[in-house]
Amino acid sequence: MARHRRRHPRHGRHGNPPDLRAFLAHMQAPGRARWQRPRRVVQALGLRRGQTVCEIGAGSGYFTLRLARAVGPRGHVFAVEAEPRILEALGRRLRRGRARNVTPVLARDDDPLLPAACGDVALVVNTYHHVPDGPVYLRKLARALRPGGRLAIIDFHRRATPVGPPVEHRVARETLLADARRAGLAPVAELGFLPYQYFVVLRPRRRR
């Protein structure tokens, strides 16, 4: 299986382009909704009011505010981001949106730094291909889930698409599933409505 964890030589330590202002604008571009389908993604997660979501690679908050609204004022979102400058931009957006049920978390590339058993759902969008060691990272995410919790991963297929990172920087769906098995996770659903990305839902396997 082809694996990709190396960074583009012109990108920064976290795999992001050097012009962060342009990168943040790109992430919030209105045209993204046509292929990312954020409303449908959030609906597919089946979130309930009062639940806690761990969003990994929150970026400037494209999904964060949507998740915060879905779980309501009694719910909570941990918005995890490894790039301090992006986390600052997220904080500004949260203040403008008056999102009081979101906690920004400055993480490491190899560790989300989340409390144990803190979340009902973990969502990883367009971030898994940045992770240096997939199985290790997935095990750490699994420890952050409450009993019955789910992990949803969305990332680009390893083929040419009109948007997304270079093909050689992507992680194939089959590689993700192999990483999940090694991490003790099993797929429970796979959704096919995104044109350029896979959408896999995982749960920790029950110990016998």
Would you give an account of this structure?
- With 208 residues, the chain is of the alpha/beta class.
- The protein has one domain (35-204): 3-Layer(aba) Sandwich (Rossmann fold).
- Helix content is 30%, strand content 24%.
- The chain has helices at residues 20-27, 32-36, 38-45, 64-71, 84-97, 134-143, 173-182, and strands at residues 52-56, 76-81, 102-106, 119-125, 145-156, 185-191, 197-204.
- A seven-stranded mixed β-sheet has the order 3-2-1-4-5-7-6, sandwiched between helices.
- Helix 6 (134-143) crosses helix 7.
- It is globular, with a radius of gyration of 16 Å.
- The chain starts with 19 loop residues before the first helix and ends with a strand.
- The model is unreliable at 1-12 (pLDDT under 50).
Radius of gyration from CA coordinates = 16 Å
Indicate the CATH class. Answer: Alpha Beta
**CATH fold type:** Rossmann fold
* Biggest sheet features: 7 strands, mixed
The domain count comes to 1
Strand order of the biggest β-sheet = 3-2-1-4-5-7-6
The CATH superfamily name is: Vaccinia Virus protein VP39
Helix content: 25-40%
Which consecutive residue ranges, at least 5 long each, have pLDDT under 50?
1-12
Portion in beta strands:
15-25%
Number of strands: 7
Query: What would CATH call the architecture?
Result: 3-Layer(aba) Sandwich
- What general outline do the C-alpha atoms trace? globular
Intertermini distance: 29 Å
Order of helices and strands: HHHEHEHEEHEHEE
How many distinct helices? Answer: 7
Q: Could you tell me the mean pLDDT?
A: 90
Question: What structural category characterises the helix and strand content?
Answer: alpha/beta
